[in-house]
Amino acid sequence: MPTHKLLLLPGDGIGPEVMAEVKRLIAWMNDHGLGRFDYEEGLVGGAAYDAHGVAVTDDTMAKAQAADAVIFGAVGGPKWDKVPYDVRPEAGLLRLRKELKLFANLRPAICYPALAESSSLKREVVDGLDIVIVRELTGGVYFGEPKTITDLGNGQKRAVDTQVYDTYEIERIARVAFELARKRRNKVTSMEKRNVMKTGVLWNEVMTVLHKREFSDVQLEHVLADAGGMQLVRWPKQFDVIVTDNLFGDMLSDVAAMLTGSLGMLPSASLGEVDPKTKKRRALYEPVHGSAPDIAGKGVANPIAMLASFGMALRYSFDLGRDADLIDEAIANVLATGYRTADIASPGATVVGTREMGEAVIREMKRLAAA
Ligand code: IPM
Ligand code: MN
């Protein structure tokens, strides 16, 4: 069995707490012959700023480039609200995405039956939900230039962000979505705003052409992004794979998260192109929830999104799909037995902390593995 090299970047807020549960899981997998993982740890976000004055150091970037996968916690918090824009905590995450060329962000939103009551929507709307948002991650308004604030000299300032997409960027994210849909329910919904934005016009055109040329066996539908947001809360089960740009994907995936009961439930994988020589791809795995500074340090954060993100690493970076299934199944079973962290607590449930939840998932994996 090959040894997999991981770089763990816990970051800020609840990041280190939920990452501790991943370390517990790695230790258990290593002890039980389910995997061989070596890891190093680094600083990112506010933690890196406090130590080095930047949101991620060149040294940590080099380690990320060399790792088989990066496992990321969360960044940011009010403590760093006033630091210069270029070194704000989020800049560390954005640099990792950009320099590792992680253009494809997969955000599955699954509503475990046990959690249907935790969603703010009615049970029948979310029960059994299983969709994936494929978010473009290295382009669009996040990185487009110019990106400036100019003093106009008359007491006014002007801020500019640039939304820019080239054909190849749309085509490669479309390909990820179509290929993923083929392994699922074979349907892709592309969301843009072609009624207002030129990037939306091109996005729509490239999706349509590629679909016709290479993926006509997959069902493709185009929905304007605002209507798509509305449909996501009206009847989300109509979707299978949603593909959309960086900014719409950011917003729509937070909406999708709440369908599952809590932001604390959503894992994500950020993937680069497969290297034709090594067959490997750069990858970073992170929970969709942020650093949750309000509950940081209290040991009450939900580690499920973080553990499920590690599960995605097993699936997408290490071809350990069966072990990833084991994690997912253990999470479902632990929820079904009534274990809840505070964010997903319901009347009558056993409310536990981060560590107890992590231990319960590993205990259940042990039981499943032995069965
Ligand atoms: C996310 C986050 C990031 C984003 C922030 C932390 C820069 O909200 O991963 O969804 O906007 O992409
Ligand atoms: Mn976000």
Order of helices and strands: EHEHHEHEHEEEHEHEHEHEEHHEEH
**Count of strand segments:** 14
Largest sheet: 10 strands, mixed
Q: What portion of the residues fall into strands of 2 or more residues? A: 15-25%
Report strand order across the widest sheet.
2-1-3-12-11-4-5-10-8-9
Flag low-confidence runs: none
3D shape: globular
Fraction in helix: 40-55%
How many alpha or pi helices? 12
Query: Termini distance?
Result: 23 Å
- The average pLDDT is 96
The radius of gyration over CA amounts to 20 Å
Q: Which class of secondary structure composition applies to the elements?
A: alpha/beta
User: Which hetero compounds are present in the coordinates?
Assistant: 3-isopropylmalic acid, manganese (II) ion
Q: Could you explain the architecture of this structure?
A:
Helix 1 (15-31) crosses helix 10 (304-316), helix 6 packs across helix 7 and helix 11 packs across helix 12. The protein contains twelve helices and 14 strands. It has helices spanning 15-31, 46-52, 58-66, 89-99, 123-126, 167-182, 198-214, 225-234, 246-259, 304-316, 321-336, 354-370, and strands spanning 4-11, 37-41, 69-74, 104-110, 130-136, 144-151, 157-162, 187-192, 219-224, 241-244, 267-274, 281-287, 339-340, 350-351. It is of the alpha/beta class. The two termini are 23 Å apart. It has a ten-stranded mixed beta sheet, sandwiched between helices. A hairpin with a 5-residue loop joins strand 6 (144-151) and strand 7 (157-162). Residues 90, 93, 250, 288 line the site of 3-isopropylmalic acid. 3-isopropylmalic acid binds at residues 90, 93, 250, 288.
